[in-house]
Amino acid sequence: MNLKKIMDRVYEIDLVNASDEELMEINEEMGLALSLEEMKKMQAFFRELGRNPTDLEVHAIAQGWSEHCSYKSSKPVLRKYIFGIESKEAMIVMQDDAGVVEFDEDYAYAFKIESHNHPSAVEPYGGAATGVGGIIRDVLNMGAKPIALVDPLFFAPPDYGEKLNPGIKHPRYLLNGVVAGIRDYGNRVGIPTVAGITYFHEDYVNNILVNAGCLGIVRKDKIVRSRVDKEGVKLVMVGGRTGRDGIHGVNFASKILDEKSEEEKQAVQLGNPILKEPLIHLVLEANEMGIIYGMKDLGGGGLGSVVGEMCHAGGVGAEIHLDQVLLKEKDMAPWEIWVSESQERMLLAVEEENIDKLRDLCKKWDVEMSVIGETKKDENLRIFWKGRKILDMPLEFVMAGVEYERKYKIKRMKKMQEILPEPKYREVFLRLLSSYNIASKEWIIRQYDHEVQGRTVVKPMQGLIGYETHGDAAVIKPLHHSWKGLAVTTVANPHIAKINPYYGSLYTVDEAVRNLVSVGARPHAFSDGLNFGNPEEEEIMGEFFESCKGLGDAARALGIPYVSGNVSFYNEAFGKNIPPTVVLMAIGIINDIRKAVTADFKREGNIIYLVGETREEMGGSEYYRIMGAKSTVVPKVDLGETKNRSEEILRAMDESLVESCHDVSHGGLAVSLAEMALGGSIGAEIDLSPLGAMRDDFKLFSESPTRWVCEVREENTEKFEEIVKSRRIGVVGGETLKIRDGERWLFNVHLNIMRERWKNALKEYIG
Amino acid sequence: MKVAILQMEGTNCEEESYIAFKESGFEPEYLHINLLKKGMLEKYDMIFIPGGFSSGDYVRAGAIFAARLKAKVWNDLKRFVEEGKPVMGVCNGFQVLIELGLLPGTDGISEEPEAALATNESNRFECRWVYLKKSSDSIFSKHVDDVTTLPVAHAEGRFLADKKIIEKVEEQNQVVFRYVAPDGSKPDYPWNPNGSVNDIAALVNSYGNVFGIMPHPERAFFWYQHPDWNRVKREMGDGWQIFNSLFREIIEAKNR
User: Closest Cα of chain B to A654: distance in Å?
Assistant: First the structure.
């Protein structure tokens, strides 16, 4: 690589005269993570300008063109399926850092889910913590007050016993580190963590997934856009200082993990919740005063992405003086300052007459600020360093980047379903209760503060105090003066998606709807977290394509928009890709939180109903997994049924006819009933004969979609049956869960035995 | 009744605390430690230190908040307490009061901390609901039911002190609330969520005007904040009773 020093810490790179080989050498040495075609495109641009670029210019382009910033592999597919689902209430969709949707006449909610996978795989504690920090800023910069966090996590099983690849850490270590990172950040920053997933599958052994989502509330007239459309507006950095931590995080995120990843810890940023907490106050106060013209958080891609995106979206240019940026390390080069992903920083666009007001606020909250430049009329980006111009390029070129119609191949599995000899029901049932994907996650959930802010009116764990079960969704009451609430849930079904990504997506959307309806909320908006392997492999791109198609088809049929989202590719290491992992963060609206319903059985003598159809579709089920049985027959969703059953249950709940409700998912009907019984600390007697002629293991353990269990008072049964298409299957009462099919008894298990199995299974490994 | 709700970086329960005071009839005001100057506390009738992670609690919980208060307004604060004005701390606020030497305050104010809120026996942060049994009447508890439920959310809440101090605390009836099992018996984990000595959850000083509590009354102020609201009917949350008790006692004392 030929370079020439042109001033202190700035080099000119000889790109114009480089051969293809030299181009890739530059790519490698500068850590750009670009392809040869991209390098050539860059070269052509500078050949046309008739000059060589500075190192800053090369880094700026690489940042703008990274997968993480440009969505170059995913955009064509997203545009086709995910974008553009109509909704009257969606206000800002897939534009800024978080989606914004109408809450009531005066207020809107903002939310988004995002991945922080690669950093967490290398440094679980710091990676997870900054994942939380980053998603909070995404919501905050819409002007919204963050009121809830969610955290879906994916690991290899905690008892994983195979030999680990070099540099790969045991899932137990990773799980403990990630949970501690989320706990220490979320608790300190004072935002309740109210929902999440902890999911185990062998294929995450080399590449764990850490997704984090945040929900906020904002008065409509205080919504801030991540854009500036006017010249002469000052650009101000507030919050943390800029350091070398997190350099090349986005390029890192767009690469495959390998042994060397451990050496790339510099690409993991460091979070500081105690810097963030005053920053939240400061930003919300400044916004209330009306002095923020535009705002964007510094996340992936750092200052470079933020200045670029903010100005490009508003159609203006910018002039930046990099020597004005406050540094942690004095000897940083301009390119390092430009791409650093140090945490706890925001870029505010503020008009000159308001700068002093902002300065006073910063003083009060002990937050540092620095004016680093201003917007300009033409659409060029110009960067100065100690008075000398070291970058001058049209923003369009840096930001528009590249897009690929990547080749894809759709893998179809032959339909087959092994039929097992009829099992011992009691034994299988207890094994399911202690399987990692079903067993109690209380040890994790209680390490997160889900009560701070006092808004959590339906908790993540539901039931009698001390006996709580997993709830389907949490309910937040965002406004002091209103009974209206927001329900929050997260869902993912990699076991099903691995067999058939299209049906996996349908199932995941259906489950999101189920969870929200279970607490009495109407599904309202989604944020999609798409985690996939290496998109350069045609089969992986095929998985992505099918997953998005399924997401699009399901949400379009139900009229629920995706308003924000995130794509994480290259979740691959040592030749192993993760299963296609679509994570949904789903928000529902409940008009009156006093009508919210929880999952725990309430009272002896109440009648139990099963809503929805049970079928012999065992592909991806926990039952077949623990039995080691094969099936590619995955559960199929009828979206018309999803819609009808949801409407019926919501109507019954609105008329206060439902005492408890829980969806049927992992482990099937048997597990749903067990969880409801555990939460209420009261048993039930169930007769499966109303489900018709089918073997009892299918009735008990099938994970067919669009099903719920509802508890109804005897005196309300007539009204309930009129509204909800359902089958009466039993009665609440006693200290055991007794299940029979007509005359044939299947099992009778005491609550204490169920609780022991369910509560202790994970704790033994991680507690 | 003007209440100063103290803030510093990392306090994070001030908004729900503000609502709790306001709805109970007080006039709460936020007061950031960066704006706090000598002589400022005089204009308040009460000081409240909210929960959170002041300064991150990267050293002993509450230590930095206490050190900064001492450096800025220690004499004012002592006068405030000596005058008999109420001071209340919840969770991290309780930790601050102990670090300041205002609690347990067996002989009024001590210049050095005489107790600690140590790391939970479970060795981790836990967020759960607990039952509390009233152990003594004070202005903070007079109108509180015998048994209430409140949430805890902390990693450091195990009250520890040497034997003499504990004896004196008990002798002087300074324990206001104790953790209790749902059936009223002595609590094991998780009913005593942190392993606190003598199941101590809340204390008042020997003067009866400085109160520290680990569970969060401000998070159980309204009935719908309770986890069992669809099982147990309440007009207001159990935490409200503490704020209400204080308000009634102070107003009644004024009218006497």
Answer: 15
Question: Would you call B55 and A452 a contact, using CB atoms and an 8 Å cutoff?
Answer: no
Interface pTM, i.e. ipTM: 0.95
- From the list B15, B51, B124, the residue facing A447 with the nearest CB is B124
Are A364 and B218 an interchain contact pair (Cβ–Cβ within 8 Å)?
Answer: no
**Whole-number Å distance between alpha carbons of A324 and A183:** 35
Residue A199 falls inside a structural domain: no
The DSSP result for A575-635, as a single string, is TEEPPPEEEEEEEEEES-GGG--BSS---TT-EEEEES---S--TT-HHHHHHT--B----
Q: pLDDT digits over A107-148, tens only?
A: 999 999 999 998 898 889 999 999 999 999 999 999 999 999
Q: Would residue A68 show up in a list of annotated catalytic residues for this protein?
A: yes
Contact A111, A565 (CB under 8 A): no
Cβ separation A274–B53 shorter than 8 A: yes
> B52 and A190: CB-CB below 8 Å?
yes
Q: What are the structure tokens assigned to A313, written together? A: 């979206």
Residue B215 is given by DSSP the state S
Q: Looking at the domain assignment, is residue A704 inside a domain?
A: no
Domain ranges of chain B: 2-255
Taking alpha carbons only, the member of B132, B210, B147, B206 closest to residue B174 is B206
Is A275 part of the contact surface with chain B (CB cutoff 8 Å)? yes
A–B interface: beta-carbon pairs under 8 A: 100
Give how far A587 is from chain B: nearest CA, Å.
20
From chain A, the residues in CB contact with B238 under 8 A are: none
**Tens-place pLDDT, residues A545-587:** 999 999 999 999 999 999 999 999 999 999 899 999 999 999 9
Three-state DSSP at A365 gives: coil
If DSSP states are collapsed to H, E and C, what string results for A614-628? Answer: CCCCCCCCHHHHHHC
- Say how many domains are in chain A: 1
Distance (Å) from the alpha carbon of B167 to chain A's nearest alpha carbon? 31
Q: Which B residues, 105 through 134, put their C-beta within 8 Å of a C-beta on chain A? A: 124-129, 131
Residues of A in contact with B124 (CB under 8 A): 447
Give a yes or no: residue A571 inside a domain: no
| Residue A34, domain extent | 3-67
Cα–Cα distance for residue pair A512/A526, rounded to 1 Å: 9
For residue A300, which of A370, A373, A246 has the smallest C-alpha distance?
A: A246
Three-state DSSP at A226 gives coil
A390/A384 Cα distance (integer angstroms): 6
Residue A285 resides in a domain: no
Interface test with A, best of B12, B120, B188 (most A CBs within 10 A): B12
CATH superfamily of domain region B2-255: Class I glutamine amidotransferase (GATase) domain (3.40.50.880)
- What would the DSSP string read from start to end of A414-434? PP-B--PPPP-HHHHHHHHHT
Q: Which residues of B are catalytic?
A: 91, 216, 218
Contact A454 B219 (CB under 8 A): yes
B207–chain A nearest CA distance, Å: 31
- Measured torsion, CA atoms of residues B227, B229, B233, B238, in degrees rounded to the nearest 10: 40
Average pLDDT over residues B121-146: 97
HEC profile of A433-453: HCCCCCCCCHHHHCCCCCCCC
* Averaged pLDDT score across all residues of chain B: 95
Catalytic residue, from A68, A118, A495, A666: name it: A68
Chain A contact for B153 (CB, 8 A cutoff): yes
A17: domain CATH number is: 1.10.8.750
DSSP string, B33-99: TTT--TT-GGG-SEEEE--B-GGGGSSSTTHHHHHHHHHHHHHHHHHHHHTT--EEEETHHHHHHHH
Identify the H or E element spanning A726: strand A726-732
A116 is catalytic: yes
pLDDT tens profile B95-113: 999 999 999 999 999 999 9
